[in-house]
Amino acid sequence: MTAPASTGPRTLRLGSATSLQFRPRTLAVGVAIGVVTLVVAAASLMLGKNGLTAGELWGVLTGSAELSRATEFSLERLSGPRLFVALGAGAALGISGSLFQTVTRNPLGSPEIVGLTAGAGGGAAAAGVLWPGIVPLPVGAVLGGAVAVTLVWFSTGRGFSAPGRLIIAGIAVSAICSALTGLALTKAGEQQAEGLAFYLSGTLASRAWGHVAQVWVVLLVVLPFVLAIARNLNLVQLGDELADSLGGRSNATRSAAICAAVLLAGAAVAVCGPVSFVALVAPQVAMRLTRAATPGIIAPALVGALLLTLADMTVQNLPQGVNLPVGIVTAGIGSIYLGYLLATEMRRGTL
Questions:
Q1: Contact call for residues 121 and 175 (beta carbons, < 8 A)
Q2: pTM of the model as a whole
Q3: In the CATH hierarchy, which fold is given to the domain comprising 26-36+71-317+325-341?
Q4: Spatial CA neighbour of 295 closest among 238, 246, 230, 341
Q5: H or E element: which one contains 1?
Q6: pLDDT digits over 62-80, tens only?
Q7: Which residues cross the membrane (predicted)?
Q8: Residue 13's pLDDT band (boundaries 50, 70, 90)?
């Protein structure tokens, strides 16, 4: 195992057949974000009325904890599934946003802007209310997201290459999806409509281990595929002609990346609703921290997991009587960032 000294990317060789290229700064930033995420995750389990003490948390991690029944119930039925859904959904949204921004070469190219999350939310609402028992809710979310992305792709006339058209088409498709969601709400009963409205705001309340399995299975299946096409994704950033000349197969790579992005965002929306702006913000934060030319895959996943876990810890510890969906917090932060991003793109003349 050798790691030759270099000021740029380094190559880690595992025997004669396997090698891994990495940038030291990206690796260091990834480790730091991972550590911060673990600290926030531990804090989310320790805060609140039935939160764990430091000794109980250590006991849970080592398998030697003796918890009260109330604390055990809270950990197994409430805070535990909620935390793992936040980590998995945040990572899925971070990777999905990175894939969109990479293939479109546009910082605005995220699932929210192209109407994917609105489409996934509409698909989930339709599956749950209009066609209950016919289409499973996770499948409805993925199908809704795929239809929304397809509509934007064709309605722009230039795929995802024109930022201005992308935003307008995304707004139009999101409006169509919102109309479908509104129709589902009118068909739902009072109690079902209340639950659906909370879900469509983006919520992690009342998550179960089944939701954890849904998002983590998709994440663990799709992530190796995304890492396998990472080299070609980097080539696509150079332009289609140059990417094709270097073996990047730009069209096939772009199609594969969008399919993976739809699956990841659909899985996240299926388990926690259309949580806003995590997919838009996470790749940009990762790119600035790593000082890389492209967002990459792992760093946006870690930033996405950190953002959603931190936002959920915030809503869980608001004063008594304030019960906000986590999507309200991410939308508030993300809308400020979107305004900054739009102003930056307008100054550059790309809008």
A1: no
A2: 0.85
A3: ABC transporter involved in vitamin B12 uptake, BtuC (1.10.3470)
A4: 230
A5: none
A6: 877 777 787 788 888 888 9
A7: 27-47, 83-101, 113-131, 137-154, 166-188, 208-230, 256-280, 292-310, 322-343
A8: low
